[in-house]
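User: Quick sanity check before I run a bigger batch. Here is a single chain. Can you write out its predicted 3D structure?
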Amino acid sequence: MLHNHNMKLFSTVALLSVSLLSTIPPTAAHPAATPKPLPLPVEIIHEFPHNTWVENLAVRNNGKVLVTLVTTPDLYQIDPFTSNSAPILVHRFTDHKALLGITETTPDIFYVVGSNYSSADKTNPNPVGAYDIYEVDMRNGASKAIITKNANLPNARLLNGMTTLCASEGIILIADSFAGLLYRLNTHTKQVAIAIDDPTMKTPPTGTTPFGINGVKIRDGFLYFTNTGAGSLVKIPISPIDGTATGPAVVLTTNAKGDDFILDRAGDAFIAENNLNNLAFLPPQGGNVTVLTGAPLTDPTVLAGPTACAFGRRHGDRRSLYITTTGGIASGVDVPTLGGALSRVDLRGTGYFNKGEDGEEWDGEGEGKGDGDKRL
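Assistant: Done. Predicted structure follows.
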């Protein structure tokens, strides 16, 4: 009898618990922490000499950071874990004037844009055949990198941001900022084609800059890109096979003067606003951006001309956001001692970084639902 009584009591409690739980409204799968006061602190990892423009970056799987320069055709590696560590020159691309975008396909195999564009050359600033894509094999370390010219894009006008569509097939996507379109390059076959040519990628007639599509990323079957001239962040569904559009573009904001950017797994965007000297945040649903650090919250020299950002990849560093800067060359910051830099913003506990669906920390380059940027 006691056993039956206990069973009935248990059943009653269980039913009551289910009933009570059903009245509680559902909460977000990963509720954000209360945001910390802004601005977020910025730590300089390495600052280059005055008049050095640091353009883009890629974080290696060992946590070290590769950065491209525009003012010289140099690729450097920086160790963010060793204080006062001098950057290592991986390679100087002597056939070019500048380096721009960079992406990783398979572990420690990177591709970079070499450019001969020169705004100072008034007669022929963008000669035909000015853009080459190079493979940088880092598997033997920075001092023994193997550099191979992979492809030339003779019709390109200003190649800029890059991302990986399919690592196993070696397919990458490259933004052409002046033409306002997206190229596809198969690095195995060397075949080049236009993947997407969409009005949202063009510089608007009222734009204050000739730059249209700029930074590009892939997440959950969508291509995300900034349009610098339009001040927009846009997403468009794409084929995982060839990167062509499978639906219409969706403008998430026209309130972001973005250069390059990065997404966390939840779809939050961290945007380098070069001309505004700040780092901005945009939630997945879009809307207005929130400035996390830099102008106008701080002196513009704190983040002078941010160009790109990426998450750390080592355990314990995956909530670090690494940011490259120009030193204010094109953003109205005129300080004779200031150079382009690699800086870091710690997002731990700030309320501006979301975990992945499995609750694990995520490195921002990870494999998420049909993603082309594979976790390496």
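Residues 1-32, 356-376 have pLDDT under 50 and may be disordered.

User: Great, the batch can go ahead then.
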